[in-house]
Design a protein that fits this description.
2 strands, two-stranded antiparallel ribbon, 69% helix, mainly alpha, 6 helices, globular
Length: 122
């Protein structure tokens, strides 16, 4: 199952995920995220699907931050990372549109870096 996920909603939710990653403890963050998404999207299945996509994108960035840094698309320290808008748009293009099967087999970072670079002049 998939749901429409407009860019405006993706960006709003991504901002919440990023802010909460700085302020919430890991052990309470999942419950807080579920509560946030279910308050924004009244269909529980849709809320959970969108939360899953955001968390997959967040963990993707965590795993591949070095690739984004090498491409000058991100800056990170031991405590936090900042990604460029281009990376967020590439994440949106994949994680908000991929099928459930595709999202399990996420693309290698080289493909996501190339997709992000397509947005350098946006």
């Amino acid at each position: 199952m998939s749901y429409a996920y407009p860019l405006k909603d993706w960006l709003t939710d991504w901002d919440w995920i990023m802010q909460s990653s700085l302020t919430l403890k890991r052990e309470t963050s999942t419950d807080a995220a579920r509560k946030y998404f279910r308050s924004r999207y009244h269909d529980v299945a849709e809320a959970d699907w969108k939360l899953d996509r955001q968390l997959r994108a967040y963990h993707y960035v965590e795993k591949h931050i070095a690739s984004f840094e090498e491409a000058s698309l991100a800056i990170s320290s031991s405590k936090q990372a900042t990604i460029g808008r281009q990376v967020n748009l590439a994440l949106f293009r994949f994680f908000s549109h991929a099928t459930d099967e595709q999202v399990v087999n996420e693309p290698p970072p080289e493909i996501m870096v190339a997709a992000a670079k397509e947005h350098e002049n946006d």
